[in-house]
Amino acid sequence: MSKTTLQLDQFVDPFEAKVVYQRDAAGKITDARFDLSGLPRLDPLLISREVAGVPDIVKRLCGICPVTHHLAGVRALDMLFGAEVPETAQAVRSLLADGAILDAAAPKLFATNREVATLLKKVGKQAMAAAGSPGHFPDVAIPGGVRAPGDPSLVTDLPALIDALGTLTTESTWSDTFSGLSVALVTDGELDSLGDSVAISDGRVLSPREFADLAIESLPGQSAPRPLLDGQTYRVGPIAQAVIAGEPQGPQGAVKAMLMGVVKRMQRTLADPALLEGPLVGDGEFRAGEGIGLAEGPRGLLMHRYIANDAGLLTQCQILTPTAQNEPWLAQMLRESLSSGGSLETSIRAADPCLPITSAPVGAMTIDVAEVD
Question: Which end of the chain is less congested by CB atoms within 10 angstroms, N or C?
């Protein structure tokens, strides 16, 4: 019997990351990449599972953004069940999604603005509880709807948060060298964490199925699959959302704009009578085929794509996280920073990969840089 030794006293720095780069014969840096080997793909683990249970599995395997995975997965099931989600269920889901974005944004602000961070965490938790998720792992959405209506009385500190967000500072300058596309979810042209369409910075508006068909992985199955949208690099997240909104911003300004947009949307949801009362689940019946679910999380667009057979078992699966979609953009910024002597930390914070390093205080990232053949 083989033995494995676990070094329980080994120190693991949560604020550490690895960047590798390559040079050509002339010494010019030709490629750089952020090491994502610590984020293995979940997709292969899900094949042959009952598709109806896949969102619940994924939200627990990927515990940093469980709400976003829960909602993207259930939205994929909505399509497989052919269900029209009622207005009340839409409102509850929206409140849950936006609450999770506020909650997840808080850790990044604790070092620079503790008051705002505390309120973000507080209101985020209140909103998620009002949507039926008082704990970390949600059990709110089901195919075609939700389990219960919302309770807006639980969200008490939103006015204080709106006032506090106005104190956040933004960059005085920001040089955006990205030449690819920016992508965000919208409803009727407005940014929406659970939008029904995908807006592209070149003016196109795609359905979820059109987006999924055009988002092709250059390195299928890899931790960094380098997806291209219709053959072009693209990015998601707050900076991309700001571009779609017609107000390009740097990382700090884009996050502030995203948070302001979330709280304004939350205000509308809380004032909507449908949140309290109405049909909870739309009619639907499982059909073999393809389901695509999209949701905006704190780092940007997440896609779940399921293909199920007549027995209701998953035969194909694709999960594209914001981190995977933003990796080509991050690689470009890292290459430019290494070539010009710029800040790798600034590049990493802009792309915001789903790793603890992004919550490090400014200047506290440990970045291991290595040249490879």
Answer: N
- Strand, helix or coil for residue 303: strand
3-state secondary structure of 253: helix
Distances (CA, A) of 141 to 75, 95, 295, 326: 9, 12, 13, 27
DSSP 3-state of 130: helix
Amino acid at 334: L
97-133 confidence digits (pLDDT tens) = 999 999 999 988 888 899 999 999 999 999 999 999 9
**Which residue type, as a one-letter code, is found at position 140?**
V
Provide the β-strand partners of residue 313.
50
In the chain, where does the domain assigned CATH 1.10.645.10 lie?
43-148+157-168+176-320
For 351, the enclosing helix (H) or strand (E) is helix 344-351
Annotated binding site for Mg(2+): 62, 319
CATH fold of the domain at 43-148+157-168+176-320: Cytochrome-c3 Hydrogenase; chain B (1.10.645)
Q: What are the binding residues for Ni(2+)? A: 65, 354
Q: Residue ranges for the binding site for Fe cation?
A: 65
